[in-house]
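Escalation from tier 1.

The customer reports that the assembly of two entities below gives different structure tokens on two consecutive runs. Tier 1 could not reproduce it. I'm attaching the input and our single run for tier 2 to review.
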Amino acid sequence: MNRRKFALLSGAAVVGAYGSIKLQKTAAPPKLGDGPAGNSAVAIIRARSYSDDLVSRMLEGIRQCGLDVRGKRVLLKPNLVEFDAATVINTNAAVIAAAVEVFHQLGAAEVKIGEGPGHRRDTLDMADDARYRATIPKFESIFTDLNRDDVSPVKGFADEPEFYFPNTVLGADLIVSLAKMKTHHWAGATLSMKNFFGVVPGSVYGWPKNKLHYYGISESIVALNRQFGRKAFAIVDGVIGMEGNGPIQGTPKQAGVLVMGSDLVAVDSTCCRVMGIDPEKVGYLRMAADLGHVRPERIQQRGETIASVRTNFALMDEYKDLRLG
Amino acid sequence: MYLESRLEFLRASQNPDGGWSYFPGKGSWLEPTTYAMLALHGTGWDPGLDRAWKLVRSWQLADGSFRPGGEVNDGTWVTAHAVTLASVRGVNDSSVRAAVDWLLKVVGAEHNVYTRVGSFLHLIKARLDVSHEGWPWREGNATWIEPTAHTLVALKKVASQYRTSEVEHRIQDGEELILSRRCSDGGWNYGTPNMLYVDLPSFPETTALALVGLDGVADPAVGQALNLAQQFRAETKSSLAKAWLQIALRCHGKDVAPPQESPFASRDVMLASLEALGHPEGNYKLFCAGGRT
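Tier 1 run:
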């Protein structure tokens, strides 16, 4: 049994609870590839508070990224994890409400919201706590609990002959990852790509979705984005993010930005740089470098410059070496 | 009105194939079908329940496990639900024994020498007892509170009928696992009381489920958890958590005020079933250990 196998066996036992050996650090980081051909546009739009005109800001960012959603069935995938009034775990309701309005304005055929939290079973109760029902018009009629949606098999995902995904996700033409800008005590950062953990149905894989932990956190992030990244767009809520012991127990950190783009690897790499994290040292981004662009010279930065909005997020000791120079 | 409106919703939302979906109009799944069947048990609706049971049995696989729904081709934690249903319906045949055998075979994947060595060497950065077997959501994954609680309910129902000593061992070990995973506040979350040496809070619904699994256990920790459950019940806004808390508290003989009379205003089949089960005149006793000590 090699070191990695040992780490997976022992780490996976509790990694679902985020409490074990750092899988990231057991495997040698892959060489950073050049990425796909061409460049990727990523827009950084300032939004100092949730009472700003988020609709206009989002429209500006989407226009800068050249996204066309006319006639498409759009699924908005927020990050709804747990609720703690003392911190900012979830995508802010104002960001989701703005996205609903924006995609309708842009001519989407339909706009739905879907999420499958990893720890809690009463999704609508959490949505209440996070003020989704109070803030987002007709929330219940457009929301699907992805943990309890009907599912269909997909072949060959995560070394499984068949892996099951919610029909709402499989049927969407465009999935918008409405992620929260947070540090993560397993992956370094959790942004638009890791947000896809919420499309794995609890009714099949449980709470938490332990299968993903056994497959590997980084490996699962990459596999999910290999599956869905081609029909994805990201809007990362960095108006107020989370630093330190994220994704649940960290502390609020204002970054004052929305970060958007169709290349989720490039969006996450940009977010990392805004947070003062070197994306070239983040395991899942290195692994995903064939899906999108990590290197700054391959990312066309629109809107604000990184330098003008960079604000270092506090990092746990284990991740101090990720700090961007 | 409270109980009958929920039962009526369940009767009206049964799918043509005999099962129930999580929400009306969707495909049937074993989990909501189980709760609906338990809620409607003994209400004089036998033809509907017979159709449901026929569907549930059709989901059993060759290894004895049960599929969670019609579209899923591998067996999971819902096998415990199928065993509970069989016991409630008085079915005791080779198919049910195969399901029990599958439950007895499955253990949490962290129950291995490597994890225990890792724990001993403090490589696992959490306060976590990995010495117990417990049950995972899916074979090959780690142990969690909810599948362990459901399996304990099932095995306690069949303990006197199948391979008694092995069943008794797994029940005792499963109960010890739940007790070992208690959060510092006295309740339970999904199964990790501590992460990176930071204590994590418990959740109302998983505290209730753990207590259901611990029905019949005499331990001071259970008494403390029951007090917390009472507090959760008073404070939580979650209807699902309230329903599970009512079931758990009643199973432990606690005096719980009946819910306020209200029609069922949701479309959530699981919620309707669990609220009906937790009603004073509901079938909550089907979750109880039934005097087993």
